[in-house]
Amino acid sequence: MSDVMLECRDVSIRYMVGDFKNIGLKEWVVRRLTGRYQVKEFWADRRVSFTLNRGDMLGIIGTNGAGKSTILKAISGIMEPTEGRVIRRGTVSALLELASGFDGDLNVRENAYLRGAMLGYTRKFMDETYDQIVDFAELREFEDRSFKQLSSGMKSRLAFAIASLVKPEILILDEVLSVGDGAFRAKSEAKMREIISGGATTILVSHSLGQVRAMCNKILWLHKGEQKAFGNDVAGICDAYEKFLKGASRLVRESSAGI
Fold first, then answer.
1. Are 6 and 75 in contact (CB under 8 A)?
2. I need a labelling partner for 14 at 20 to 30 A (CA). Which of 35, 66, 83, 258 fits?
3. Cα Dmax for the chain
4. Which residues, including other chains, have CB under 8 Å from residue 254's CB and lie 6 or more apart?
5. Quick check: 210 and 242 in contact, CB under 8 A?
């Protein structure tokens, strides 16, 4: 039995941008007929390829607009690649946009059950694990408070606590280990290590290179949709990325100074 759990083969994702976003159907038809309709292609990712085995933890790095969130959506099945293929060999759980999907008028307890239902957990399972969830999220004293009164960090902690109960074969994390204060981040990392030690293949997007260096055995560097590097030399690629960031920062300062 192969240990390969996930393959991205020359994955490219294209967005179409143009007049249709700001005009109605009638105006769109008129512009099409008169030749005044404009549309442009934008490739968020181009020819991204990598393979992950059971138990691998991949760190994805890159500046804003690099295509990180887009490739995660393709891997999780939210989007279909325009070109290339994503091959998954296991159940996928994606922790993306943690604070979304809650009802602001419900309290913490009610939202925990709502989110659990959205993830496919049974009422019996939620009854058995609710105390564990609210304690892990450190929201015991807030469980009867209206959700809209909570901070974004509190909301994200609850979402993380609920989602981390599942035991997926492929786990996708988008900046979720930066949730909360230092103590909660350490607890989140420990929980992720527990999941990984159970054999999960994990993908982590993080702006914290220290986190990537400490937790990941493979790394993918994206820049403006292009794959700059992929491999198991996590330290070496992180060093190259830091050097790139320093160079880019220097160019911005020189430009601002009019040099």
1. yes
2. 35
3. 66
4. none
5. no
Q: Which residues of 167-201 are buried (b: 16+ CB within 10 A; e: fewer)?
A: ebbbbbbbbbbebbeeebbebbeebbeebbeeebb
User: Residues near 41 by Cβ (< 8 Å), separated by ≥ 6?
Assistant: 14, 15, 16, 17
Q: Where are the alpha helices (DSSP H) in 164-259?
A: 182-197, 209-215, 234-256
Task: Give the residues across from 61 on adjacent strands.
Answer: 221
The least confident of 88-92, 118-122, 200-204 is 118-122
Q: Encode pLDDT of 217-250 as tens digits.
A: 999 999 999 999 999 999 999 999 999 998 866 6
The structure's pTM equals: 0.76
* pLDDT exceeds cutoff 90 at 82: yes
- Reference 184, options 151, 233, 149; nearest CA is 151
Is the CB of residue 70 less than 8 Å from the CB of residue 44?
Answer: yes
Q: Residue 1: what pLDDT?
A: 45
Q: Between helices 152-163 and 108-118, what is the axis angle to 10°?
A: 40
- State the DSSP string of 47-113: EEEEEEETT-EEEEE--TTSSHHHHHHHHHTSS--SEEEEEE-S-EEEE-STT-S--TTSBHHHHHH
